Amino acid sequence: SKAFKYELLIKRILEYSLKLEPTREIHYRDQVKLNYIELNQRVRKLANVLNDLGADGGKTIAVLDFDSHRY
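RE: above sequence
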């Protein structure tokens, strides 16, 4: 049996957050403030750009940034 009911993927975490509290604000230092709806829009925009560049399903894309809202 699996430990979780769903895979721990960004899209699954976003789906869950959007379902529970879509307007809850996320704060990064004093620099950025956005809610889960806005975060979801940013992630989907990035996914579309990556898809347009040829990174379609089945490819692994990784971005690492130390303690930042940028990814």
